[in-house]
Write a structure and sequence with these properties.
Layout (H helix, E strand, L loop, with lengths): L14 E2 L1 E6 L4 E6 L2 E5 L4 E7 L3 H9 L1 E6 L5 H7 L9 H4 L4 E2 L8 E2 L4 E12 L3 E13 L18 E4 L2 E4 L15 H16 L1
Bound molecules: flavin mononucleotide.
Length: 203
């Protein structure tokens, strides 16, 4: 099959879409971010890439901390809004009726309505031509109690997280294809997992 070649671009898809909260009790803000990811496992490290022109760039450069708030389907509207309006002019928490709550290690508010909040401390700022990359260590993770099963296990699939692909928001339908390593899994293990899933669905 022949290919059509495009000029170089940010074609990596899908990517996460998250609401990043920053500031403090007097000056709070939320910015929607798609340029984010994990860069190290131990210690857990992440990054957010932000244009210098954003109000959040100014806040995070100064405070050196932020919270990544994961986004469920029911927060898609607020996520889009926080990605088109600047906190220079408005309080996005108030405008979108989002609740600021305190974390453990950072002074900036987390978003209560988000199912998972990831506290981050900035370790490095790497400047690139369009965006500055805020490299950060993850210092705490909080999840809604409703996502924790009776064995204390996080059931992230129940959070209805969304992703961003080629300019659009998509829900991650709860239709998993296979677990990590399923391509080399023994048939006996596959059967056991399928049985466990059937039982889980019946609950
Ligand atoms: C889906 C989506 C993803 C975005 N990703 C980024 C990003 O990764 N980096 C960035 O600087 N701006 C990104 N933006 C744009 C900012 O969120 C937007 O300019 C916002 O209004 C900035 O808010 P602030 O001025 O209050 O910081 C994104 C916007 C949307 C809608």
């Amino acid at each position: 099959m022949s290919k059509v070649t495009f000029k170089p671009g940010t074609m990596l898809n899908p990517v996460p879409v998250v609401m990043v909260s920053c500031g403090n009790s007097e000056k709070q803000n939320i910015i929607t971010i798609a340029w984010t990811g994990i860069i190290n496992s131990d210690p857990p490290m992440t990054y957010v890439s932000i244009r210098k022109s954003r109000y959040s760039h100014e806040i995070i450069s100064e405070s050196k901390e932020f919270v990544i708030n994961l986004v469920s389907k029911n927060l898609a509207f607020q996520t889009d809004y926080c990605g088109v309006k600047s906190g220079k002019d408005i309080d996005k928490f108030k405008e979108q009726k989002l609740t600021p709550i305190m974390g453990n290690n950072v002074k900036c508010p987390m978003i209560k309505e988000s199912p998972v909040n990831i506290e981050c401390k900035v370790k490095d700022i790497i400047e690139y031509p369009s965006h500055d990359m805020f490299v950060a260590e993850i210092t705490a993770v909080h999840a809604d109690e409703s996502l924790i099963d009776e064995n204390g296990k996080l059931q992230l699939e129940k959070a209805n997280l969304i992703a961003y692909s080629h300019g659009e928001y998509f829900e991650l339908k709860n239709n998993p294809i296979g677990k990590f390593g399923y391509s080399v899994m023994k048939p006996k293990t596959k059967k056991r997992i399928a049985k466990e899933k059937r039982l889980e669905r019946k609950k």
